[in-house]
């Protein structure tokens, strides 16, 4: 069996990555990234930065974030402690699924990760306390390119599963999309 198994989602380029976890009486061992396999899933090049994100409370929500061109990035999100509902939103101009969203439950237990292509905003809600995510990025963080859309925007309509606990000031104030929103040319 392959260490990383790629799955499609209804949004082009958004892929599930199922990680084989080798379990024994000590615990488990699993692969987080494989250039050869993830190239098949559309990963564009080297991993440029790796980040961690720790969220203490169930219900906390982070997102929806993306980097604007020319700093758009692919992102691989892996949950190594706890569980989240992880969400991708399609913001690509001309995409047949523009403003569509897709959610996956990522957890340390299920070993599932989510790969997002450039042009998709990312966010998640913690389904447990004490959640730890690892992010692989295909482009560096550029503060001036750090953009976001409102996670509670009714035009997107993400159904967050549990009552929202913590939401940052920034995320609370992210813009909702205009009625004539056509997406971003990535
Ligand atoms: C994304 C990023 C942020 N930062 C700095 C900027 C802030 O001073 C601090 C916290 O950033 P932020 O409040 O944007 O963190 P989150 O709200 O967890 O956002 C992240 O989680 C959402 C769901 C994502 O998909 C993004 O990867 C990322 O935006 O880290 C960096 O130094 N490097 C980075 O790559």
From TrEMBL:
Site (Participates in a stacking interaction with the thymidine ring of dTDP-4-oxo-6-deoxyglucose): 141
GO cellular component, one term: cytosol
Molecular function via GO: dTDP-4-dehydrorhamnose 3,5-epimerase activity
Active site, renumbered: 65 (proton acceptor), 135 (proton donor)
InterPro entries: RmlC-like, RmlC-like_jellyroll, RmlC_Cupin_sf
GO BP annotation list: dTDP-rhamnose biosynthetic process; polysaccharide biosynthetic process
Catalytic activity: dTDP-4-dehydro-6-deoxy-alpha-D-glucose = dTDP-4-dehydro-beta-L-rhamnose
EC number: 5.1.3.13
Gene3D superfamilies registered for this protein in UniProt: Jelly Rolls
Function field: Catalyzes the epimerization of the C3' and C5'positions of dTDP-6-deoxy-D-xylo-4-hexulose, forming dTDP-6-deoxy-L-lyxo-4-hexulose.
Name this polypeptide is given: dTDP-4-dehydrorhamnose 3,5-epimerase
């Amino acid at each position: 069996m392959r260490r990383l198994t790629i799955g499609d989602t209804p949004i082009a380029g958004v892929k599930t990555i199922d990680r084989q976890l080798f379990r024994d009486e000590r615990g488990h061992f699993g692969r987080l990234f494989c250039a050869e396999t993830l190239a098949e899933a559309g990963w564009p090049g080297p991993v440029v930065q790796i980040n961690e994100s720790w969220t203490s409370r169930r219900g906390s929500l982070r997102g929806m974030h993306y980097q604007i061109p020319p700093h758009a990035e692919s992102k691989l999100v892996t949950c190594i402690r706890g569980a989240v509902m992880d969400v991708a939103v399609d913001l690509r101009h001309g995409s047949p699924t523009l403003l569509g969203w897709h959610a996956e439950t990522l957890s340390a237990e299920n070993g599932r990760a989510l790969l997002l292509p450039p042009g998709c905003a990312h966010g998640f809600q913690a389904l447990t306390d004490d959640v730890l995510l690892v992010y692989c990025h295909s482009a560096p963080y550029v503060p001036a390119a750090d953009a976001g859309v409102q996670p509670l925007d009714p035009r997107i309509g993400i159904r967050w599963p549990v009552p929202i606990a913590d939401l940052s000031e920034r995320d609370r104030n992210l813009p909702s999309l205009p009625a004539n929103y056509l997406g971003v040319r990535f």
